[in-house]
Give the backbone structure.
Amino acid sequence: MQERKSEFIREKICDPDITFREIAAEFGFSSQAHLTSYCKKYFGATPTELREGKGEKIAVRSL
């Protein structure tokens, strides 16, 4: 379940038309900072890094 959530979050992050604030709200994060912490933990990159393609090769970390 968590892995699917991570996949959806990553898909949204890679869409430049969706703000990080919208993604944080949609997935129930308390703030953008919480979303950033989540991304660092599970993807090894910040949302900005993921969006810029720097995290493309980073797989979802084992939960």
Residues 14 and 52 are 8 Å apart (CA to CA). The helical segments are 2-13, 20-26, 32-43, 47-51. The mean pLDDT is 88. The first helix runs from residue 2 to 13.
